[in-house]
Amino acid sequence: MKVEHILHTNGGVGKTSYANNSLLQRAVISMVKPIVGASIEELCCTLFPECLKVADLGRSSGPNTLLVVSDIINSIHTTYQKLNRPPPSLQAFLNDLPGNDFNAGFRSLPGFYKKLDEEHEKKFGSCFIAGMPGSFYGRLFPNNSLNFVHSSYALHWISEVPKGLLTEEEEGLNKGNIYIAKTSPPAVFKQYLEQFKRDFTVFLRSRAEELVPGGSMVLTITGSIKSHDPLCIWEFVGLKLNDMVLEGLIGKEKLDAFNMPFYTPTTKEIEEVIQAEGSFTLQNLEVLKNDWDSYIKQANSGLDKKTRAAIFATHIRAVAEPILASQFGEEAMDDLFPRFEEDVLDHMERENCQYINLVISLTKKR
Ligand code: SAH
User: Fold this and answer.
1) CATH placement of domain 3-364
2) Alpha-carbon distance 308 to 295, whole Å?
3) Which residue of 65, 168, 216, 327 lies most exposed, with the fewest beta carbons within 10 A?
4) Residue nearest ligand 1's atom 22 by CA
């Protein structure tokens, strides 16, 4: 099944909504801000565009929606102050799959424009924001029309679950797991890697057609240190689903046939695809490691470990619930996530649990 039919983050503004549970993604955007700033400065000083055209791919809805646009505007402003020139106008496209709640983001635009005028005392050129629904694994924009592409926490979603994971009898290759896990046979890792390579190649080729020569991209995704043992959060969610199968709460066939359309590549895998595709120069590939709960500690230093584990589990739920519920049913989710929460705490107490972010800066070859 294609990801676009099942993937969306939890909508609305409720307790488990993405809008209220995207603090982790927000912290990642802040970490990457200096890299985006440097890329924008470089672009402005080499291309001197009259109108800077940018796209934020896999933007979702909620408070993070306009954060990146706002960071880009600040970078443009600072750069042009240094250059002592009037800043260009900005056209920013917010992209996500067609099922995304675009209107939620659009409703906040009037307030955003007003704040912009106040902050920059009307000195910033003009800013025009538009939506662009569609999959980034394919073309979204006209040829040579973009200067800069940004994407945060979206490209680890692959376009579909690798078809080879389901054998003819519909018996899963990856029985009892929902992602690459220690008990997965090597063929599972190979299927995932091949799917990632195909998808990331299509992504690069599409963006190469859309960006002007010299245009650039900053892409942030979750990654792995070891390819075949990615130590991904889905391994832990899979273990809890397995417990529920053993207790007869979920059908075994449902778990055996399900896999996450997700892949956490290593830096080597990323470099190989970029090199083989050939349109981009890799400027920088940074690996940022963070404790599972470090962003929660940063936001509120007074919380104990149990509370931090609970918040982390709710954040994972906001991302994973729609896709897991489409396979296991809504009712199973209220059982699954409290179990997961207990497990998160247990892991945090026993080991140093970290997640890996890869920040990839690329320039389209001239
Ligand atoms: N960038 C946002 C949202 C991250 S959630 C943030 O940092 O807060 C990931 C988003 O990527 C989801 O909204 C999902 O719908 C979107 N996405 C996943 N695959 C996609 C695809 N092929 N094309 C466009 N958007 C996609």
Assistant:
1) 3.40.50.150
2) 10
3) 168
4) 135
| Residues 298-327: tens digit of each pLDDT | 888 888 989 999 989 988 988 888 899 999
Which residues form the pocket of ligand 1, taking CB atoms under 6 Å from any ligand atom? 3, 7-9, 22, 25, 29, 58-60, 64, 95-97, 100, 135-137, 152-154, 157, 159
Question: Any idea where the domains of the chain sit in the sequence?
Answer: 3-364
Ligand 1, closest atom to CA 28? 7
Residue 332: both structure tokens together = 């199973």
How does pLDDT run across 97-136, given as a tens digit for each residue? 998 888 888 988 999 999 988 887 666 678 999 999 999 9
